[in-house]
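Bumping with the actual sequence this time:
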Amino acid sequence: MSVSQLTKRVRRELTYLDYPAREWTVPRFMDGVPVLDVLVVGAGQSGLGIAFGLRLERIANFRIIDRCQRGFEGPWRSFARMERLRTPKEVTGIDFGVPSLTVRAWYEEKFGRRAWGRIDTVPREVWRSYLDWYRDVLDLPVENEVELMLIEPADGIFLAHLRRSEGIERVYARKIILATGFEGSGRWGAPKSLVAHLSADLYAHSADDIDFRKLAGKRIGILGAGASAFDNAALALEAGAARVDLCFRRSEMPRVNPLTWMNFAGMLGHFGDLTDLDRWRFMRHILEELPVPPTQDAYWRCREFENFAWHPDCGWSFIDEACGIARVRSSNRRFEFDFMIFASGVEADLSARPELALFFEQIALWRDRFTPPSGEESEALARYPYLGQAFEFTERHRGTAPFLRGLHNFTFGAMLSHGISGAAITGIKYGVRRLVNGIARDLFCEESATYYRDLLSYQTPELRTLDSAFVWLSQLGSDATDFESFANQLDQRQFATLRALLQRSRPHEKSPTVRSSRLGRTKRTSRPARLKNKKRK
């Protein structure tokens, strides 16, 4: 079987799951303009999975947009610079339990079953290609190069301002889902205290677009000890950097990946159901006390170069510039670099999100809802948004911004509220289902009165006639000129009804009519035999 045959198989299997098929959301209008049920912002792996999930729930009135050109949604062809994913190759999630839609099914048809057996993790570019196929096989209506600029509350719903190449489009939506990845609840950026007085051409963040060819022959400094730090160091070395020094503040190289421990159904599916104290303690340990290490491949990739060195206990405390050179000081060392890369992660900061500019101060953060025990404080975690059960923002002051329940944050910022779900492949299986189920619940409950009125007016009879089957069939076919035209009047359900009626219309085997008929046939066939015998005598 080829990938094209697999595509046909997926589409056929989805028809087996087409129940209930009814599209059920209630159309709404604002100023005569149709209102979307859902606007999905971001078409990376999360956004694509959400779009498919909405379709499975028969929510068809949605749009999905992404600011990047096709194929560059998400990090995989931009700032993700690893050679292979660290995620186990067996991971599932956006397939929603359809086996032929999994990355394994696609990979085996693309490269062969033996090739699947030879890998432990999926190459980065291969994963991106799988997402491209996933989008196509499901025919998801992604609109590329469309950017969300601003969200404006409007009478209980939202007015989204979208920037397109031809200008600004304004769209009304009942629900908006922010599936904008790692930076969706804040920003990437170098520490302001270190770079405030430096020229912009002296440094970059690991998430920036970096031309590594320009680093050839230069002394490179990298701050950080995680996967992105080593991935960027490897690319700089491979591009011909004169020397790369990787510095970090911890006394030892991180070696244990706490995210791997999290990969079990209880943690992935029900972290959001824990108490605030439990969630705080888990995430404080995972995000601050036990940081994610580089992969073994990334570490070895750097160690191949003699001009690479890593330095523990070497957090940078001060940087200044002299003659185009960055002079870096730590507690016990000094460096001079031609260029620096800050692999310092993402900072939770809703004020940095332009789309939330009108109301970010009304959104509850963890510091507004929870006070940690003494000695367990964390200013970084306290800035994370405090989300509801379906990833919706909540009000900082209850009753002041009820519209926030329609705005859902499926980004890295959901980590403290819902665990590894909004920006990680391993958590998508549980996070997307929780989100989509919450969306469907809200859309239904908000229109309960409308559905009740529809029920009261429902008059479609299931008992089609009180006549006998013979009379009903006669009336049904009286206007038909031939059998074919008669058959064309019947839908699938009527055919089933007709078949059942014909079966029930047959006389019962033990009925007097049947017995009498059989007796008559017996008498007619036996009489000539008796007459013949008499003649012989």
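The tokens above came from a reply further down the thread. The first strand starts at residue 29 and ends at 30.
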